[in-house]
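Working notes for the structural subgroup meeting. M.R. asked for a predicted model of this chain before we commit to crystallization trials. I am recording the input and output together here so anyone reviewing the notebook later can reproduce the run.

Input as submitted:
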Amino acid sequence: MAPAAISTTCCIAGGGPAGMMLGFLLARAGVRVTVLEKHADFLRDFRGDTIHPSTLELMHELGLLEAFLKLPHSRVERLSGQVGAERLTLADFSHLPTHCRFVAFMPQWDFLDFLADQGRRYPTFDLHMRAEATALVEDGGRITGLRATTPDGEMDIRADLVVGCDGRHSTLRERAGFRVENIGAPIDVLWFRLSRHAADSAETFGHIEAGRMMVMLDRGDYWQCAYVIPKDGFAAVKAKGLDAFRESVAAMSPFVRDRVGEIRGWDDVKLLTVAVDRLPRWHKPGLLLIGDAAHAMSPVGGVGVNLAVQDAVAAANILWQPLQEGRVTEAALGAVQARREFPTRMTQRLQVLIQNRVVFPALTSTGRIRLPLVARLIQRFSWLQRIPARLIGLGIRPEHVHTPDVPA
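Returned structure, recorded in token form:
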């Protein structure tokens, strides 16, 4: 039996932050768009949950900020840390020139459900859950659609443009044969949860000791914990035993010692294999990759979600009119990469610098950890805290919404 077939103007593979934001913005501008998400819902744990001031500012520009902030979230105005015995404030967002001078920690499933609901307000928005893009359709050297698997069988989607937003392990990237530049990451991250008590600090907190690093994110009724380890070091952590791991967690954050037993087994600890890479070329005729599919980011700074959203806004700004007029050229796709490549490269360069100069040396150290010179200066001159706040909170070349709102 022949696969079911549909036609659309833009087909987006992947319902993550980049895909959902792009789908919503294009539908809002009157472009017919089909978004494919391979899962039945957005309920995956330990995904990027940091919504930075740059993304919150976009919500303001879209007139959605008030509704968005009604979703469950916590707010952090300052990022603090501890290096050895020294405590310091790393970034102060309270001085940013934005409507929201804080980072919002929000479950990503709530963020994505919100974008999906906004998209559904427009008749040109078509979201297919449990639909996984598996192959590209090519005609005369141009990508003209894709094939997806669904619970009802295979489906062919013909489209003027296919956009791959299917993450760092992108199927479309592989099928299209894009070359990937692996920049490298000397670390991996172990994610787990611990309950949060009312008396606990409300700050997002990072702690570095010789051989260990952990970051704790306030998620309301629990802490989302990131325990940083050397690359491919999970087997060595397991070899020492679960009790040793619990003790290491308690030593890093003594106030959670009474609840480390909540880590009942290794199934409660999820490995994030950190990758930092990017594509030299993000597009070919009829196909564009954005977000993690085009550039996997380190978790340093928690900027991955916001970089993906910025890509989506830039792509919508540049492509909505060519899509409406049926003239999406390679030059238009190249303009998206040209707009977003510099911020991507600079952000990755900063992440790699921190990984290689701060995080990895601390993880492999056996001696006393001292504050890096930059951190000592930030601690001494509080106004310097505004610089990392701007780099993390707004990023490099933040985007603004220029797409129209075509009434439904």
